[in-house]
Automatic annotation (TrEMBL):
InterPro entries: DbpA/CsdA_RNA-bd_dom, DEAD/DEAH_box_helicase_dom, DEAD/DEAH_RhlB, DEAD_box_RNA_helicase, Helicase_ATP-bd, Helicase_C-like, Nucleotide-bd_a/b_plait_sf, P-loop_NTPase. Signal peptide: none annotated. Residues 34-204 form the Helicase ATP-binding domain. Keywords: ATP-binding, Helicase, Hydrolase, Nucleotide-binding. The lineage of its organism: Archaea, Methanobacteriati, Thermoplasmatota, Thermoplasmata, Methanomassiliicoccales. A motif (Q motif) lies at residues 3-31. Residues 231-374 form the Helicase C-terminal domain. One of its GO terms (molecular function) is ATP binding. This is ATP-dependent RNA helicase. CDD domains: DEADc, RRM_DbpA, SF2_C_DEAD. GO terms for cellular component: cytosol. Residues 3-31 form the DEAD-box RNA helicase Q domain.
Length: 471
């Protein structure tokens, strides 16, 4: 397949390395951006994580700058330490036959070690803005010979407040250099940067959402907060995926990690409060198959680039489309199919409709997988009254009393209040049937309905009570 990359104009030694890495054919962003980049144009490319961006700017850099230099000829700016390391590793693989040296520069690690690596000679820097600026100010890093600047995940870097550091770095580079900007979205700040620092840039946009979602089967499961762990362990036990699990908060990541470890799952957590060395070990263990499950926050998982993730599970549903796409784009890579499952509470179901409209893709409703007959759930399902209630907090119950028992609405309400110690204001609509009846009761009294009401017989009859699912 090397010829397909050579056709884009990539240097033969770079294309040979790409072939060794097992890349079969160029992605849409690579087909659109590499030829223009090799001609020296500045580029603004709109592309999501997982679409082949590193291969795009890596091919341009490695095909246009010399190797074996003392100071760098190219710099790639990344929003996180993890992404700087991963990009450096990827460019290292792409340099197997060209001999280019890429050094990752990031905070939270020994600055002395990074300085030693720079002094040995470097062709490309992959770094976070804060540490790169620090190295420049300490006069450890010389950007006077930069020929190519790459600003990756541009919108994320601006969201994280790196704008001043980025502009400082740009001003340390020669005026006559090429700039490649990659971003999932194009906010006004990025357009301003392009105006201020780029020369007649070519804009490239390759239906980015479809590229990410093509190989991903998207599902959602309607489940309340109290039963998310039950639903998760059912999926893990039955489908046995290599899964990346997203939570909204660091606290929830830690809670879920502890809960799963108590049940002997091979799981690790990843979030910003962890020491850098531990974060690197966790990512390496997940890459190498030492752990099956990685629970992460959005910030910690930015730039995580692992090809064999079979499932992305949104344990907590994101509330915006860009985060959703960034998350599920971690699966369905390298030509493999992937699955994305979102746990959605009743209050969040509107997000499914919104995301479907925004992406043009169907997110199918899926039931929690059925356990094998006779097997026990790892985590027991509980009654979640928040999920079962309507917007007014009322839950529907079926009571095993009806017209055949000579009961009407008033007598049934009176029986429920006495048997369950339930106040009158907590009882809503009652519908009397022949053998059984339905009653609305406020969720605050749900346990009393299920546990206490059946303890009192009605005219000597044992009464059954069960909760009904919401329509």
């Amino acid at each position: 397949m090397i010829s397909k990359f050579l056709d884009l104009g990539i240097a033969e030694n770079v294309a040979k390395a790409i072939d060794e890495m097992g890349w079969e054919e160029p992605s849409p962003i690579q087909e659109a951006a590499i030829p223009a980049g090799l001609k020296g144009y500045d580029l603004i490319a709109q592309a999501q994580t997982g679409t082949g961006k590193t291969g795009t700017f890596g091919s341009v850099i490695l095909s246009t700058i010399p190797s074996g230099q003392k100071v760098p000829s190219a710099i790639v700016l990344e929003p996180t330490r993890e992404l700087a390391v991963q990009v450096s590793e990827e460019l290292g693989k792409m340099s197997d036959f060209s001999g280019h040296v890429c050094v990752p520069i990031y905070g939270g690690a020994s600055i002395e070690r990074q300085v030693d690596e720079l002094e040995e000679g470097v062709d490309i820097i992959a770094g976070t803005p804060g540490r790169v600026k620090d190295m420049i100010e300490r006069e450890y890093l010389d950007l006077s010979r930069i020929k190519v600047i790459v600003m990756d995940e541009s919108d994320r870097m601006l969201d994280m407040g790196f704008i001043d550091d980025i502009e400082f770095i740009f001003k340390q580079c020669p005026a006559d250099r090429q700039m490649l900007m990659f971003s999932a979205t194009m906010p006004e700040d990025i357009k301003r940067l392009a105006t201020d620092y780029m020369k007649k840039p070519k804009e490239i946009n390759v239906s980015q959402d479809e590229v990410v979602l093509d190989l991903i089967k998207e599902y959602y499961i309607s489940v309340g907060r109290r039963n998310k762990s039950w639903a998760l362990t059912r999926i893990l036990d039955i489908d046995e995926p290599k899964a990346l699990i997203f939570c909204q908060t660091i606290k929830m990541v830690d809670i879920l990690e502890q809960r799963l470890k108590e049940h002997h799952y091979k799981v690790e957590a990843l979030h910003g409060d962890m020491p850098q060395k531990k974060r690197e070990r966790v990512v390496d263990d997940f890459k190498e198959g030492e752990t099956d499950l990685l629970i992460a926050t959005d910030v910690a998982a930015r730039g995580l680039d692992i090809d064999d993730i079979s499932y992305v599970i949104n344990y907590d549903m994101p509330d915006d489309i860009h985060t959703y796409i960034h998350r599920i784009g971690r699966t369905g890579r390298a030509g493999r199919e992937g699955t994305a499952v979102s746990f959605v509470t009743s209050e969040e179901e509107y997000l499914i409709r919104e995301f479907e409209l925004r992406t043009g893709m169907k997110i199918e409703k899926r039931d929690v997988p059925e356990a094998e007959e006779g097997s026990k759930d790892t985590i027991r399902k509980v009654t979640d009254y928040d999920q079962l209630s309507d917007p007014f907090g009322m839950v529907m119950f079926e009571v095993g009393l009806g017209k055949a028992d000579g009961i009407g609405k008033v007598k049934l309400a009176d029986y429920i209040m006495r048997a369950g110690r339930i106040i009158d204001a907590a009882i809503g609509k009652i519908k009397i049937g022949e053998e059984s009846s339905t009653v609305e009761v406020h969720k605050d009294f749900g346990n009393r309905m299920l546990m206490d009401v059946p303890k009192m017989r009605y005219r000597g009859k044992k009464v059954s009570v069960k909760v009904l699912e919401r329509d």
